[in-house]
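Entry:
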Amino acid sequence: MGQTQQTEKNDEEIDVKALQDMYKKFIMDCPSGILFLHEFKRFFGIAPTGEVSDYAECMFRAFDRNGDNTIDFLEFVAALNLVFRGDLEHKLRWSFKVYDKDSNGYVDRSELRSIIDSIYRIKKGTKKDMDETQLSVDEVVDRILQAVDTDGDGHINLDEFIKGAQQDPWVLNMLKLDMNPYGWVLEQRRKSAYF
């Protein structure tokens, strides 16, 4: 009782034992208390290159709250808390960080295209949600920019990103993989021998 936390819109639970196991693994793999990108990939059992690797790099960058190219255990726990229990706006804020690769405060066409392309490649590799009538990456990027870039400057700022995703179910659906990294984390956790 009191040992588990229900996730928002998910039947899966993360319990204290799982968190303790992650901490033990974190400390065993990273006795210095910090996790570098290559260790982050190894921690989740991800190959150094490929579609999932590209996505993992974006997630790593978003988890690295202080921008020092490492993740300490507090950043790790904060990220997992967001992934498993965060509300829609917090997940959108986190998602924006994933898209804003250069951390300049807005998402431009090339950043948007890069992430959408990674999402498509991951989905194609898993055959998940892929069908013959799917829009191309460029068509998706154009449609998102048209729906979200309210001032028409070719960039999406955080406010536009959040409002656009909240107001347009299609945009929200297109961002779902990044919006809800819960499924990605669980999938990598299941594949990894570490958990």
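The chain has eleven helices and six strands.
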